[in-house]
Amino acid sequence: VPPAAADLPYVSRLRVRNPRSVRMLQLTDIHMFAGDASYYEVMNKKTMEDVAALIAATKPDLVIFTGDLWRDHPPEEVDNYARHVIGQCGGLGVPWAYVWGNHDQVGDRAAINDLITKAPNSLYRGGVSDGNYVINLEDRHGKVVWQFLCINTCTTGMVAPQQAWVKSLPDDIGGGRRGDTPRMAAFHIPLKQYGTVWENGTARGIKCEGIGFGEEDGSSLGVLKSAGVKACFCGHDHVNDYSGVIDGMDLIYGRATGRGGYGALQVRKGGKLYTLDGRTGKYRWESVLPDGTRWVPGPDERVDKTPRDKR
Fold first, then answer.
1. Model confidence over 110-147: pLDDT tens digits?
2. pLDDT band with cut points at 50, 70 and 90 for residue 6
3. What is the DSSP string of the chain?
């Protein structure tokens, strides 16, 4: 184990089989226990069946959940919701990571942090740093070939505390150096520029709602760039599935997954598979449905069904 990695409690490590073709499956907005209580059992079951089908179809090296795994009320039940979902994630049989969503509220945060960290196959190490942590993907020699900065955007988006954490990271994070190691950032609430890349025509994909960037003022993009991040992926807005590049940063929406969340009639629920080349730093993504169907927007494919009064 490289000494730097051993000394940083917020660094998680995963050895991958083929550094030239790492398969990462992003699932987002699971929304277990959402809606009417009479539908919990059915909807939760169907969502986890979809998750299992997506994993079977994509055979990922790891899964990253980008927030909103459970509902945020009533307050006396949220810890039980969290425990249930964490147990489900731990039983998937693949390495998995998690970033907090705005609906992922808990009462005993220390206990839930500990539970997520100790769950089977969990890569979560955010308990010591307010939900923020780093995942190092390593080859068989222990060399870091890819890094994910996992950021807790809380309920407000990426604002001062999150920016301060990113700025505090050393150039060499557990053996992966800024500028030498490909870095992506995973979080729940999008940056303000997710709207810009659509409005200026550079993005490709599907947009059916406005950008819920919270209180983020557009300054986080520069902070992430300074940390060597080349691409970001998020969730939060269930019926947006597109990506676009601005100032050298690729901004990517995940495909919303959970049956309990809104938007299934506009954009079918699924996940997003990323194939990463740790030697070249290149990657590609494709949206995947539980039946195995895959979709990548064409060079000029822009489906805009955003309500006019919400633009």
1. 999 999 999 999 999 999 999 999 999 999 999 999 99
2. low
3. --HHHHH-TTEEEEE-S-TTSEEEEEEB---BT-S-GGGHHHHHHHHHHHHHHHHHHH--SEEEEES--B---STTTHHHHHHHHHHHHHTSSS-EEEE--TT---S-HHHHHHHHHHSTTB---GGGTTT-EEEEEE-TTS-EEEEEEE---TTT-S-HHHHHHHHHS-SEETTEETTTS-EEEE-SSPPTHHHHHHHTT--EEEE-S----TT--S-HHHHHHHTTEEEEEE-S-TTEEEEEEETTEEEEEPPB--TTSS-TTTS---EEEEEE-TTT--EEEEEE-TTS-EE---TT-EEE---GGG-
65 and 234 in contact (C-beta within 8 Å)? Answer: no
d(CA 310, CA 296): 26
* pLDDT single digits (tens) 193-246: 999 999 999 999 999 999 999 999 999 999 999 999 999 999 999 999 999 999
Strand 204-207, strand 240-246: pairing: antiparallel
* The pair of three-digit structure tokens given for residue 295, joined into one six-digit string: 């979709």
Burial 197-236 (b: 16+ CB within 10 A, else e): bbeeeebbbbbbbbbbbbebeeebbebbeebbbbbbbbbb
| Predicted structure pTM score | 0.96
User: Which pLDDT does position 7 carry in this prediction?
Assistant: 75
pLDDT digit string, tens, across residues 173-202: 988 888 899 999 999 999 999 999 999 999
